[in-house]
Design a protein that fits this description.
The protein has 232 residues and is α+β, with helices and mostly antiparallel strands. A five-stranded antiparallel β-sheet has the order 4-3-2-1-5, sandwiched between helices. Strand 1 and strand 2 form a beta hairpin. The longest helix is centred in the middle third of the chain and has 21 residues. It is globular and about 50 Å long. Pfam families: PDDEXK_6 (PF04720).
Length: 232
């Protein structure tokens, strides 16, 4: 009996143009600030860790309740141990995740043309809430799996969905500092007009990875779920 062929994910690349706009005024203003900080410091700061720290501190100085967040999780039978750092900021009661080098986290070897097109649609800088990020990670992880299989390559555990979700959305994620500088209503009042109040109750991803204790210490993509016509 001939082996069953894996059906590729159907991706409508043309629909990506409609996925770029920010989901809220708060996201758009935060993205603008992050992009400005990265543009100002990106050429002189080469290490991603250093740039992340500069961005987090600059956002705090502008009055944002922002911090570097650290995720760390233990090895399981299906997922290797790992750790990751990103930035978060609380805007009008909603936690927004900020990653200053988002696209590079999804690069894979010998990718198909379809996956390359999807990769190009992802922003260099991501700003968004956990619900939208969950959708993006699920879709891109599945697309990476299909791309690797089509090229006859093994899918490493660190490219699977659970591992990618654990990076940004693990319950073990801890803020490096807690409200070091309270937000100032007078700072950036002109640059951040009438931020849209967001609903704080979003769906929480339940990790399959056991959390591990952690020592304390420019473009936005929206709704990538519509990229898939048929889920595998």
């Amino acid at each position: 009996m001939a082996p069953m062929k894996v059906q590729p994910i159907a991706i409508d690349i043309d629909s990506e143009k409609s996925l770029i706009p920010c989901a809220s005024v708060g996201e758009r203003n935060l993205l603008a600030e992050v992009a400005r900080i990265v543009e100002k410091n990106g050429k002189s700061i080469k290490r991603k860790d250093d740039l992340r720290k500069v961005v987090a501190e600059a956002l705090s100085s502008l009055g944002y309740d922002s911090s570097i967040c650290k995720s760390k999780w233990e090895k399981t039978s299906s997922c290797p141990a790992g750790e990751y750092e990103f930035i978060d900021a609380i805007v009008e009661g909603e936690r927004l995740i900020v990653d200053v080098d988002f696209r590079s986290e999804f690069e894979i070897a010998r990718s198909t043309g379809t996956y390359k097109a999807m990769l190009q649609s992802l922003p260099f800088i991501f700003v968004g809430n956990s619900e939208r990020l969950t959708q993006i990670l699920a879709i891109v992880s599945d697309a990476a799996k299909q791309s690797l299989k089509k090229k006859g390559m093994h899918v490493p555990p660190w490219r699977k969905r659970d591992y990618m979700l654990a990076k940004w959305l693990s319950p073990s994620s801890i803020r490096e500092k807690e409200n070091k500088q309270p937000p100032s209503s007078s700072v950036q009042a002109a640059a951040v007009p009438e931020m849209v109040k967001a609903v704080a109750t979003t769906s929480v991803w339940q990790s399959q990875v056991k959390p591990k204790s952690v020592e304390r210490g420019t473009k936005v993509v929206t709704g990538l779920a519509s990229l898939l016509k048929d889920k595998p």
